[in-house]
Amino acid sequence: MPLFGGFRIGRWLGFPIRIDYSWFLVAALVVWTFSFSEFPLRLPGYSRSTYLAMGSAAAILFFLSVLLHELGHAVVARKRGITIEGITLFIFGGIAQATQEARRPLDEFLLTAAGPLTSLLLAGVFYGAEALARFGGVPDPLVTVFGFLGLLNLVLAIFNMIPGFPLDGGRIFRSAVWAITGDMRRATRWATWGGRLFGMSLIALGLYGLSLGLLLPALWAVFIGWFVAHAASTSFKQFELRRALERIPVSQVMSLEARSVPANTPINEVVEDYFLRGRREAYAVELDGIVLGLLHIEDVAEVPLRMRDKATAAQVMRPTYDLPTAHPHESLADVAIRLGSGENSTALVVEGGRAIGLVDVRDVGHWAARVQRLGLGSEEQAPAEEIIYPRAVEESA
To answer: What are the structural domains of the chain?
Structure first.
């Protein structure tokens, strides 16, 4: 769920880790707050450079804590049979992106509770490190950083347990209501109202703080309150839309793959025979009937004109291991999670080792808009068993 795009920094425990570009904004704000507000108050009498070093170290360890919090969700989700596509750090923290909702209330409870429990464990680790550092005569700045991180993780665990969707506490509340009522949609709606109420309360508290002259805490309260209230409303809309998109198979939406590019085809021939004669902006690349990757028009455009008779499709393509793939019988909702911007905006639809179609973010956006216009992604939508989607007809190039 990138906000402004981002990049991958590696894998932890088998999960791809990404940083959204929006993360750098909050990272700078956190370093500034720690360095020039929190630590000078907690440990007066030190130089600005010392506070900056403390703030930078605390920020790095804090974001590492957020990442471990999300890894807690991801590990338990994987054990409960829920696939996690990856973890993204962005402006409001982090998110573990699951390919589907939990199947049972117990699954929802366990994978959600893992996050706050991880934060509580980290709080104990940092408080323990503070005690050992103080006992061992470690310099006060390091002792202060450890203690502060213990407090931050404790606050993170408590804050996330507030029963408002999409916070962890809201998801746990949803799992409880779901278990009692047997209705996941009703449980989501109730938890959403909790999130909205909490967010608006934080905004009101922040505005009151502004009237008292508490500028920085008040701004943080308003900022976080707006995010929680907005995220609660948005999450419910996404939940409703996902329920509708789950009923649309990829085969109904994909562009049919009538032609694939042989791997050894020179780029100048690809331009002439494919991109100038067809309407597609991407083609599968095959070798002996096996899909190797995807050749996008943007990739071809980057090849200098003088090199296009030498470079081949296989050399320019994006390999399949770097691309999202889809099966024709899975739902559009599942594929939508894998699609982002740039190099991940198109998924290959593969069956039996062969590319049979393509689906991209525009296809998802088109069907999402159609579903919403028909009222099938709203609170008034018909029961699941009553929704019938006509089969779409797509022209191939």
So the answer is: 6-245 (no CATH), 250-386 (3.10.580.10)
How far apart (Å, rounded) are the C-alpha atoms in residues 330 and 327?
6
pLDDT in tens, 103-117: 889 988 999 999 999
> Residues 256-297: pLDDT tens digits?
655 678 888 999 888 888 888 877 777 888 887 777 888 888
Lowest mean pLDDT among 115-119, 131-135, 155-159, 341-345: 341-345
Q: Give me the sheet containing 255-256, strands edge to edge.
A: 255-256, 354-360, 346-351, 325-326
Q: Is 125 left (phi over 0), alpha (psi -120 to 50) or beta?
A: alpha
From start to end of the chain, where are the E strands? 6-12, 15-20, 84-90, 93-98, 255-256, 261-262, 282-287, 290-296, 318-319, 325-326, 346-351, 354-360
pLDDT higher than 60, residue 201: yes
CA 165, chain centre distance (Å): 16
Nearest Cα residue to 332 out of 349, 356, 352, 319: 349
Read off φ and ψ for residue 348, nearest 5 degrees: -80, 130
- What does the longest C-alpha to C-alpha distance in the chain come to? 75
% pLDDT > 70, the chain: 87
Integer Cα distance of 371 and 390 in angstroms: 12
Residue type for 117, please? Answer: L
Going by C-beta distance under 8 Å and a sequence separation of 6 or more, which residues neighbour residue 213?
none
340 within 8 A of 2, measured Cβ to Cβ: yes
Amino acid at 71: L
Average pLDDT over residues 196-220: 84
Residues 115-141 have a mean pLDDT of 92
Taking the C-alpha atoms of residue 123 and residue 181, their distance in angstroms, rounded to an integer, is 35
Lookup: tokens for 72: 């807690």
Assess contact for 390 and 280: CB atoms under 8 A. no
Residues β-bridged to residue 256: 357
Mean pLDDT computed over 298-325: 83
Q: How far apart are CA 257 and CA 355, in angstroms?
A: 7
Beta bridge partners of 18: 8, 88
